[in-house]
Specification:
The structure holds two protein chains of two kinds.
Chain A (H helix, E strand, L loop, with lengths): L14 H36 L1 H8 L4 H26 L3 H31 L13 H36 L9 H25 L5
Helix pairs in contact in A: 1-2, 1-5, 1-6, 2-5, 3-4, 3-6, 4-5, 5-6
Chain B lengths: L2 H27 L6 H21 L7 H34 L1 H4 L10
Helix pairs in contact in B: 1-2
């Protein structure tokens, strides 16, 4: 790490310190994101303790296949993102770019599948309101939380797509140096958090009342 | 052994583990375990999160400062859950004993 690296930004004098600062900064941000999604999960937990039967009945209405395939898609995107970040460290430029591209494709695939799932949910009248399909009133709370949590997650994923796509385009054009760049690690950590949130949502939304 | 192979092998093994756990949680959800179904689902999700955090996010070999930042998030989350759920569960018990009087004071009032 020399101070002449093109990715070195003021006020840092050494790249290693800059990278440490960036990684620490994103971890503090991720901790605040944990609390943000945590508050939604807490709401879910509190309502579930009060209306467990209605929540199980409502959970049975979600499409387990969309949920499971999307979980596999997102975990695979985490694999390609992790490989991209480590390949950037090892100065394997072509592998980094290929894995960044695969991450974008898998992220887009997730959103497309989620879109089909939302269309199916709307068709089955699973949007809380006058024409809601289930008779238990608390089932509407489950689906209100389903829509909020999955939509907020999809927004986070879209932001991640923008960040990964940016690295892919500017990295490919050589306008951003991928090796030793803290932006690669920061983007990767953010992407993995989006995956972690989905891993926790999966059993709470899709695996309810299946036995 | 090329560097590319080493990177794929390390992360690929974690990915295979994640997919195996996904298959396991999918299968376990279909077993009649009653209240344990959600416990098993969350436990497997916890293992998957640990794999992603330790290997993909590199927390396993990160400096103490990064681990501390992640642990701080977890600490505040635990506090948030403990204190709120203590209130919700206490409110539910109080509500059962004296259903009309306490309801207005509950943070989350039952709909049914």
């Amino acid at each position: 790490m020399t101070s002449s690296s093109p990715v070195l930004q003021p006020p840092w004098k050494e790249l290693s310190r800059q990278r440490e600062g960036a990684t620490f900064g994103i971890w503090v941000f991720l901790a605040s994101e944990m609390l943000f999604f945590g508050s939604l999960l807490l709401l879910y937990t509190a309502y579930r303790t009060l209306h467990s039967e209605a929540f199980i009945a409502a959970g049975r209405e979600t499409d387990i296949w969309y949920g499971t395939v999307n979980t596999a898609v997102l975990m695979t995107s985490s694999l390609t993102m992790a490989v991209a970040a480590q390949a950037a460290e090892a100065d394997l430029r072509r592998l980094t770019l290929r894995c960044l591209a695969a991450t974008v494709v898998l992220g887009l695939a997730f959103l497309v599948l989620k879109g089909f799932e939302y269309a199916e949910d709307i068709e089955k009248n699973l949007v809380p309101g006058q024409s809601f399909a289930l008779k238990e009133p608390a089932a509407q709370i489950f689906f209100a939380l389903y829509w909020i949590m999955t939509a907020v997650h999809a927004i986070h994923l879209s932001v991640g797509l923008g960040l990964v796509g940016r690295l892919l385009i500017f990295g490919g054009l050589r306008r951003v140096q991928l090796r030793d760049n803290p932006q690669v690690e920061v983007t990767a950590l953010y992407w993995h958090l989006v995956d972690v949130i989905w891993i926790i949502l999966y059993p709470l939304i899709y695996l309810m009342g299946r036995s | 052994m090329s560097h590319t192979f080493v990177i794929w092998r390390k992360n690929g093994l974690v990915w295979v583990g994640l997919l195996a756990l996904l298959a396991l949680t999918f299968g376990a959800a279909h077993l009649p375990l009653g209240g344990l179904n959600v416990v098993v689902g969350l436990a497997i999700a916890g293992i998957k999160v640990a794999l992603v955090a330790l290997v993909f996010m590199g927390l396993g070999c990160s400096p103490a400062l990064m681990r501390l930042a992640a642990a701080t998030g977890l600490f505040w989350l635990t506090l948030l859950f403990l204190l709120t759920l203590a209130d919700v569960l206490a409110g539910r018990h109080a509500g059962n004993e004296n259903s009309k009087g306490v309801k207005a004071e509950q943070s989350i009032s039952p709909i049914r």
